[in-house]
Design brief:
It contains twelve helices and 17 strands. It has about 400 residues and is an alpha/beta fold. It holds the Pfam family Peripla_BP_6.
């Protein structure tokens, strides 16, 4: 059921935002009377299997909202409005995403929904957005798996992240930083992105001179990987690529170490982000995970936001996640201002017309498929940081190989 507009204002206003770094303050911008706050609603995994991501995403949203409000708020139809963020815990459960997203619209009056993380949580959010005809903007969900869940294309949902074809290529390109036998062992779970990524690694490997010699497939929540690890060892693969959730990645790495499987390059994709090193200590050293933010991506103020986030989340994907979610708020605020209204149809049209919007993440343009595709990089755990190691023109440190944390 389509939700009625919360506010109705004249169209044609332009965004009056000063993009501020996290914690910055600014005086109230002149012009326009103050209006009621505009609600941005987010259903996040604050607990559950993906609970490590939720507080980080919430922090990025809070920082984006705080910076916009400190700069005077959003100018919608000539009236200034503060943004109000409402967050609810989906407990890493897709069914909870559905229920809570509807509640954010119907009970809390959300004008725009903000995304969660991974396709399993962002896809049900997108379904609700289309059914309720209320816009949703998200990041941290690879775009092909997200698109593949709706063959007719999303109408009210928008995704800002990497394309999996490019993402899977980065694993092979980064592997070229050292000498290997070019044999690859895959470990992929059976969630949407595990299936999609595994198929892409299999199809892309020959293009880069690599051969998939073994692939393990298992359900999310697997705790014993020993049989798969032994088969990977027996295959002789120097390159190991996994697509697993964080708890599974930690268990897999511990067992690889215990069973003395030490490939020259190893990638715990999805599961090797913020908190991976805290759970593993020295065993995490040298693990590689793709990234999505760089100072060269045409962003405005992104370095300041990233540097501020490093104090809490370290130099790596945690801080990159803050930059991405901060930018989602900027995208939503820009669309609200250009729409001149909180009418969902008007905001959705404005989102679809987003072009070359400079955010802290990158310049954002949505194509007809409602994607804005970011360039993937490669990071590597080195002590307590995840510096970029590929591509060469963005690398901030030397690549470590073979994987130090797995060497017996």
């Amino acid at each position: 059921m389509r939700r009625k507009s919360l506010l109705a204002f004249a169209a044609g206003a332009t965004l009056a935002l000063t993009l501020a770094a996290c914690g910055a303050s600014a005086s109230q911008s002149p012009g326009g009377a103050a209006g009621a706050p505009i609600v941005l609603g987010a259903s996040l995994p604050l607990t559950g299997q993906l609970g490590g991501f939720g507080p980080l995403i919430q922090s990025g949203y809070e920082q984006g909202v705080a910076a916009i409000n400190a700069a005077g708020g959003v100018n919608v139809g000539g009236s200034k409005h503060q943004l109000k963020l409402v967050v609810k815990d989906n407990k890493s459960d897709p069914q909870q995403v559905t229920a809570l997203s509807k509640s954010l619209i119907n009970d809390d009056g959300a004008a725009v929904l903000l995304g969660s993380v991974t396709p399993p949580l962002n896809i049900p959010l997108s379904v609700v957005a289309d059914l309720e005809q209320v816009p949703a903007v998200m990041s941290l969900a690879p775009t092909l798996a997200w698109m593949g869940a709706n063959k007719d294309g999303w109408k009210y949902a928008y995704d800002v992240f990497v394309d999996e074809t490019q993402q899977t290529a980065v694993n092979f390109q980064a592997s070229d930083l050292t000498t290997t036998n070019r044999k690859v062992a895959l470990f992929t779970d059976t969630e949407e992105d595990g299936k999609a990524m595994g198929a892409l690694w299999e199809s892309e490997a020959p293009k880069y001179g690599y051969t998939i010699v073994y692939r393990a497939q298992f359900p999310v929540g697997t705790t014993d990987f020993s049989q798969f690890i032994q088969k990977a060892k027996d295959s002789g693969a120097d390159v190991m690529i996994a697509q697993v959730i964080p708890p599974d990645a930690v268990a897999l790495w511990k067992q690889m170490k215990a069973l003395k499987y030490s490939p020259k390059v190893a990638f715990p994709e999805k599961g090797g982000g913020f908190g991976f090193d805290q759970a593993l200590g020295d065993v995490a050293e040298g693990a590689c995970v793709f990234g999505w933010w760089s100072p060269t991506n045409g962003n405005v103020g992104g370095q300041a936001v990233y540097d501020a986030a490093k104090a809490k989340y370290g130099d790596g994907l945690g801080a990159q996640g803050i930059v991405a979610t901060y930018a989602v708020v900027q995208i939503a605020a820009d669309a609200l201002s250009r729409a001149g209204s909180t009418d969902p149809t008007a905001v959705n049209k404005a989102l679809s017309q987003t072009k070359d919007l400079a955010t802290v993440l990158a310049k954002i343009t949505f194509g007809p498929d409602h994607r804005s595709v970011l360039q993937a990089t490669m990071t590597q755990w080195q002590r307590a940081a995840q510096p970029t190691v590929w591509p060469a023109d963005q690398a901030t440190t030397k690549f470590l190989a073979p994987v130090p944390g797995l060497v017996s």
